[in-house]
Amino acid sequence: MTKTFYEPKIKAILFDLDNTLVDFMKMKREACRSAIHAMVDSGLKISKDEGYKKLILTYFKVGIESDRAFTEFLKRETGEVNPKVLAAGINAYLVTKSKFLKLYPNVIPTLAKLKERGLILAIVTDAPKVKAYQRLLSMKIESFFDFVIGFEDTEKKKKTDVPLKMAIEKLKLEPKEIMMIGDSMKRDVIPAKKLDVVSVFAKYGSSEKIGIIRPDFVINNFSDILKIVL
Length: 230
What we know:
Elements: E1 2-3, E2 12-15, H1 24-41, H2 48-62, H3 69-78, H4 83-100, H5 107-116, E3 120-124, H6 129-138, E4 147-149, H7 162-171, E5 178-182, H8 185-194, E6 198-202, E7 217-219, H9 225-229
Parallel strand pairs: 2-3, 2-5, 3-4, 5-6, 6-7
Antiparallel strand pairs: 1-7
């Protein structure tokens, strides 16, 4: 962990969800790989490697949380949506998703210690709210959080400073009493810096490089949060 020269008096922590609490992209890659294998085995004419790459690309085009990715992928590849192939892909995706959707190490004990110290914890995510709650509930961590700000709450504006402004208003705290932790410089760190919220870059969940605008803290393990606030 690297840090700046001051020690903030943090009263609330805002967490991004995917790739900060939950290893989302590992799950997405493995689930898409299983889906393609199942679709090919059910008659889709494409190599498994090529199919996997194109399905992932489709998700990035239509939205990483989109429910239309499989149908859009099949339409582009075959000109139609074969119900058998689609069903095989969905089934394989869901089975694999449940196996690979996991918390990063030390998330639960760290959250427990933060709550014991009386900190307010909340989620600020680009994910649709129902899907965010699905993940929180399936990981059994929903009870740690006082509120969730999701995709629908911010007029579909992906993490500009709008979600953080909303969180500050709900918390009724000074920005410097609030910490934002996330894996994206653009969507998490830079908006936090703009609003004078203490910014923490979750390096363990990101492949991004730190540029000219630097976070206040960089953590390599979720439990490093405790070194900042306790």
